[in-house]
Structures are given as C-alpha cells and as structure tokens.
Amino acid sequence: MEINDRKMSKISVQELERRWKLVREHMKERGLDALVLQNAKDFTGGYVKWFTDIPAAYPRTVVFHASDLMTIVEHGSEGKRRELGGADPENPGVGEILTTAAFPSANYTQRYDAGAVSSVLLRRGYRRVAFLAADTMPHGFVAHIEQALSGKATVSDETDFIDRVKAIKSPEEIGLIKKTAEMQDLVFSKVVSRIRPGMRDSDVTALAEYEGHLLGSEQGIFLGMSAKLGAPAFFAQRHFQGRTFRTGSYMPLLIENNGVGGFYTELARTIVLGKASQELTEGFEIVKEAQEYTVRKFKPGAACREISLAHDEFMKRKGAPPETRLYSHSQGYDLVERPLIRADENMILEENMNMSVHPAYATTSLFTVICDNYILERDGAGECLHKTPKKIFEIQ
Questions:
Q1: How far apart are CA 323 and CA 58, in angstroms?
Q2: Which residues, other chains included, contact 158 with Cβ-Cβ below 8 Å and sequence gap of 6+?
Q3: How far, in whole angstroms, is CA 193 from its chain's centroid?
Q4: How confident is the model at residue 4 (pLDDT cuts 50, 70, 90)?
Q5: DSSP assigned state of 79
Q6: Can you tell me the distance from the alpha carbon of 234 to that of 223, in angstroms, rounded to the nearest whole number?
Q7: Does the domain made of 171-395 have the CATH classification 3.20.20.20?
Q8: For 348-365, how does the pLDDT look when each residue is reduced to its tens digit (9 = 90+)?
Q9: pTM over 0.90
Q10: What letters, b where the CB count within 10 A reaches 16 and e where it falls short, cover 343-354?
Q11: Within the chain, which residue ranges are assigned CATH 3.40.350.10?
C-alpha cells in the first residue's frame, strides 16, 4: 500500500496547486507574508480542508506562507516538530508539522497552538500577517497571536477573498460534487427500501449514515424526527431521535453528508408510513414551488439579498410565513459556506457555485421541506444534481 492510499478521499495535487497559486497571487498584491487559519470540525472546517486536503478534528491550524511550504500546527505530543519538506504525500504542500497537547475542552490550553504559530511568524520576521475567518476562532488563540505580533507586524483579514475563490468551483470539484449528489440519491433509495414500522427515528438516520459510509462518505449530519400526521415533525439531531416510527407517522429526512473528495451536498424528502394527509401534500407543493422559484433567480451577478426578499414575498403569497432560517446557501468542503441567500449577505452569485436550496414550511400541525443542489452555469442554474423524485414517499 502506498502511504497516500490510506486516505478515504483525496483531491489531485494539480487542484491544490491551483488553489495555492490563486492565494499567493493575492498575497503578493496585498504584500502579505502569511495567512493564519484554523478549523476544529469537519463539516464546518472547509478552510483547512481547502488548503491541505485534510479535514479538521481537534483544532488544526495552517500557516500559509507567501514564499514557502505550509506550516501545520495540530494535536499531538507537546513540543514536537516533523520536518516534511513537501515530500509527504499525505500532507502535500506542507513543510513542517508542529504538535501541541491542546484541547478545546481545556480552557488554559487554548494558547498553546497560538504560541506555536506566533513563534513561527516572529522567527521569520514577518511584517504583514492576515487571519482567515478570525471571528470563528477561539478568542484566546486570536488574542495571543495579536499580542505577540503587536509592534512587530500588522494584522489584517482576508476572509472575503478566500470565501469567494473557495465558492467558485473548478471542473474537478464540480465532478466530485455531482458524485456526492449521486451517492445521496442512492442512500435515500436504500433507506426507503428498508424502512419499516417499529424502527426508531435513530435507526433510520443510522441506516442513512451507514449506507453513506459504505459509499465513501466520511462525515455528515442526518436530521429526522417522526411525528403523527397532524403534528409538526421538525428536524432534530440524534439526541431527539428516540421516537418509534409507526404507521400513520411521517418523517422529513435530511441527508447532509460528504462524498468521495470531501464535498457536501444535501438531500431532503419526506417519508410517510401509510398515506400522506391532504395538508402534508399541499404543504409539500408549496415548498416545491418555492424551490423552483428561487432556482429560477439563480444567475451570475444576482444579489443574495434580493433573492431572499423575493422568496419571502413568494411564501407570503402562498399563505406561508417568511423564512427566519437559512433556506439556501453555497456548499463545498463546508456543509454551509458563503454566499448565503439571506438579507445580510454581500457576496453575489457567480458561475460554478454549488447552491443548496431547502425551503421549509411549518405550522402547529405540519413541517415539510425539500432540499436539492444546483450548479450555477453561465445563464442560470443547471439541472438539479439530485435525481430523487421530488415527491412525498409513501410506504404502505
């Protein structure tokens, strides 16, 4: 076995080099010596994955040098250093890995990683350093670095640039995203073929997760909570999936796992044990139409705020409340990445973005939703990536 064959999924070195080149060209224009980024979860840890092809678990920090291989700081033996020189196929583009014994649950250790990063930056004499998504990092981590660099280097933020280039997918990335959607279609069909009265809600989501793992998925979230027809069945994490799924009940099931390559899409459909009520059927038609309405507005250059406001007006015309949750957004290595179709988003839509669209409708007696992905093309959204029929699935 070649050492790089240990990876469940991987991106080509050529794709990684494309990303690094884009970033270094931007850094040169801005006169930056290094970028500092950190993530601590896979499904919202896309920055680290985008730069290194490795997901974050414990906090993983990247120092992306303008003129050198990357420095990685990750969990391990305290004070250790591995010199890779870019020759390790499991860590492409990495010059060195520093390890610390820091834990998110141990408050006093939050400065350990920051201390390692600060030492690297100061030792190299950098004068201009930028954070990537500093607002998402632990306060202690950011504060320690800023204090260490005070009077020695200026610190800026380059999040908006990275968010944009990360959201515009390359042909290789789009190919992997399409495979994720295909995988989720197959997972859902497996669930529908095996679901039976008497299964707990957690059995249903565990089945979806298991089938995804067999098809190369590594991480994800599986939301579903059943209820009797005539009561709302909201999305819920596994902690609230203890109900037994019985005849006369329904479950909106959301499959949000990544596929081979680590890219996310998401699929949601409603399953009924028995026959769907008229209320559920009518509610589903509303969200189905709402999805179609939003997708028609997906064009390069479109403003997210305007699409969001138009969606709310559409829902009002249908007698449904406006969305107070995020109902559409881009996806990639992050389950949710910018741009968000929301009134507070200042990014615009661009060609080759991967957009998830999941409008929902809730009342005191109903919750219904639909979710699918679309790639933006030159003249608008392409065909739906998911091929699962857009209907309520009735299991008799």
A1: 34
A2: 26, 30, 32, 35, 130, 131, 132
A3: 28
A4: low
A5: T
A6: 9
A7: no
A8: 999 999 999 999 999 999
A9: yes
A10: eebebbbbebbb
A11: 3-167
Q: Give the model confidence (pLDDT) of 186-245 as tens digits.
A: 999 999 999 999 999 999 999 999 999 999 999 999 999 999 999 999 999 999 999 999
Tokens of 272: 């009924």
Give the whole-angstrom CA distance, residue 394 versus residue 273: 6
Question: What's the whole-number mean pLDDT along residues 324-330?
Answer: 95
pLDDT attached to residue 5? 66
pLDDT over 60 at 1, yes or no: no
Is 2 or 379 the better-scoring residue by pLDDT?
379
Q: What angle do CA 173, 178, 179 make, to 5 degrees?
A: 100
- pLDDT attached to residue 3: 46
**From residue 267, how far is each of 47, 66, 144, 194, 293 by CA, in Å?**
23, 39, 41, 18, 18
3-167, what's its fold? Creatine Amidinohydrolase; Chain A, domain 1 (3.40.350)
- With contact defined as beta carbons under 8 Å apart, do 370 and 323 qualify? no
Cα–Cα–Cα angle for 135, 101, 8, rounded to 5 degrees: 75
- Residue 252's identity, in one-letter code, is P
Range(s) of the chain covered by CATH 3.90.230.10 = 171-395
The count of other CB atoms within 10 Å of the CB of residue 278 is 8
Checking 142-146 for CB contacts under 8 A at 24+ apart, the result is 142/114, 143/114, 144/111, 144/114, 144/115, 144/118, 145/36, 145/114, 145/117, 145/118, 145/121
The token pair at 48 is 């680290």
